[in-house]
């Protein structure tokens, strides 16, 4: 006689929205208009982007400038 395998979670059997991750993912997928990022997260990302832009600007300013089309100087091929 074989034993029945125990189910680890009831997430598949639940119909109402609980705090479980699977239920929340399903709810979020079904209601995209009600889902927004937290204020803390958006502020953190905004700060990260500012810092990234500042670093990029600093890198660009310290790099040597190379002229793509340098002005042709007087030739001395004679």
Structure commentary:
- By secondary structure, this protein is mainly alpha-helical.
- It is built from two helices and no strands.
- The protein starts with 20 loop residues before the first helix and ends in a 16-residue tail after the last helix.
- The model has no long low-confidence stretch (mean pLDDT 81).
Count of DSSP E strands?
A: 0
Fraction in beta strands: under 5%
Distance between the termini: 103 Å
Order of helices and strands: HH
| Whole-number mean pLDDT | 81
Name the overall outline: elongated
* Secondary-structure content class: mainly alpha
- Helix percent band: 40-55%
**Main beta sheet: strand number and arrangement?**
none
Q: Could you name the ranges where pLDDT drops below 50 across 5 or more consecutive residues?
A: none
Radius of gyration, Cα only, in angstroms? 30 Å
Total number of helices: 2
Helices and strands, with pairings:
Elements: H1 21-30, H2 39-62
Summarize this structure as a short list of keywords or feature phrases.
78 residues, mainly alpha, 2 helices, elongated
Q: Could you write a compact summary of the structure shown?
A:
The chain has 78 residues and is an all-alpha fold.
């Amino acid at each position: 006689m074989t034993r029945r395998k125990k189910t680890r979670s009831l997430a598949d059997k639940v119909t109402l929205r609980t705090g479980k991750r699977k239920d929340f993912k399903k709810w979020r997928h079904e209601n995209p208009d009600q889902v927004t990022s937290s204020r803390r997260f958006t502020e953190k990302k905004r700060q990260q982007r500012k810092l990234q832009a500042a670093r990029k600007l600093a890198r660009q300013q310290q790099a040597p400038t190379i002229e793509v089309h340098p002005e042709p100087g007087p030739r001395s091929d004679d």
